[in-house]
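#struct-help
A.M.: can someone run this one for me? Single chain, 110 residues.
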Amino acid sequence: MSQVVPDRQDLSLPLTKECKEAIEKNPEDIGFTAVSMEGCMTAKSMVMALEKAGTPPTQEGFIKAYEAMKDADLGGIKLNFTPQNHQGQSNVYLEIVQGGKLVPFKTLKN
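D.P.: on it. Structure tokens below:
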């Protein structure tokens, strides 16, 4: 399975640790999943753009701030946007099913 988020068990990555702590504080207990991690990453990038969108922020300022992000560090993962590219990052993380659970795919065994 491919993911756009890093291994959620690897708390050495500042972003993963920050998102895990934030999500586990949620009173609705949505759980720390790939989906909630992606949402956390999106929210963090939105805050970064809002901080540079002007006072008060406008839609135009927000979009320009996003499109000007170059090597914006989320906490170990860099985002890059341009007016032509809104993908942000192109990292892909692989997972496999092992023992009924998704685990990070590290290497091929010979």
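A.M.: thanks! The mean pLDDT is 90.
D.P.: also worth noting: The CA atoms of residues 2 and 20 lie 20 Å apart.
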